[in-house]
Amino acid sequence: MRSESGAAGARILAFGGYQPANEVTNDDLAKTVDTSDEWIRSRVGIASRRIAGPDESVPDMAVAAGGKALAASGLSPADIDLVIVATCTHEVQIPNVSATVAHRLGIAAPAAYDLNAACAGFCYALASASDAVRAGSARNVLVIGAEKLSQWVDWTDRSTCIIFADGAGAAVVGPVTEPGQQPGIGPVAWGSAGELAGTIAIADRDSFIAQEGQAVFRWATTKLHPVAQAACDKAGVDPRELAAFVPHQANLRIMETLARQLQVPRERVADDIVHSGNTSSASIPLALSRMIEQDELGSGEHVLLLGFGAGLSYAAQVITMP
Amino acid sequence: MAMTEKEILEGLGEIIDEIAGVPADEVTPGKSFVDDLDIDSLSMVEIAVAAQDKFGVEIPDEELKNLKTVQDVVHFVQRSGVSA
Asked: Under an 8 A CB cutoff, do A222 and B46 touch?
């Protein structure tokens, strides 16, 4: 039996993001639950978030973000042979999101699967895409994180409804083509902590997201900076020399603590959470898309990604901006 | 040698000053973290983690919710701490 081999390295060709039009401010939430703008800003750092309409589904948002990334990459749908959608909030168990999204984008007969690593999903999917390109099982991969958390949130629970939001972000991953060119996706540092599985969970199909805030906060602020550091070490990049640190947009206080621990200056930490909320697997590519749109990141710069969340699951890697 | 109540109180005052910006001299035994010092639940986690390092004790989340006043923490550290 023969085996196959792929590219020497994988890189990101483009990003794309999509957010629903409906903006919900803290003052809007204060009309229905006992909370305030000051309370939400000081605890989680969110000012407003986007919430999808009743007819706007996870696949709809995935198509919008995926289509933008594909257009920005310069590739045609026919060039894509693998589609990975990271999501934990899809409306139904089957069919999956990825095959439907591929069809709607005109990508004919790609390998397509969904991946659930919750808020770490995008980094898991990016690592899987990179591995597929390097192994030769795919040439170009469309990676999407898409979430409609609003349909799994109890809108009378002030501890969760202030945090979670909707959106999608995507990246196109392809091979390194020039001889000697550096890989654009660094080695992944990843893992899980199943002993803490109960700290972020949806108990059954009639339940909503429940979170043990203190336990998750303690875990995130004490166990994750070594993971981020390991990703930098594997890539041979000093965290202090990163152009940006883009952690999952979970909670501004967690993100700022992680930055301090890694000695990344605050102004280089993505804070898309302020106007996007926590969009789980979509948060990292959404933040990157916005930073590119606002010319905050230049081509060739190194950025550290760190996804973490329910599972508990986590994954980090350094990327080179397209 | 076990730490004295005064030593623990001083150490706790430094931690709370650094994490929550509450002047150390306001950290007195009778004060409630939430009602008097305006410290929220996530800052309590940060204070617990810092106190663990400083005093060499373990303060799990299930214990944390019982620690409502400065005195509660001082007593907990005294009970748990083998030596300083």
From this structure: no
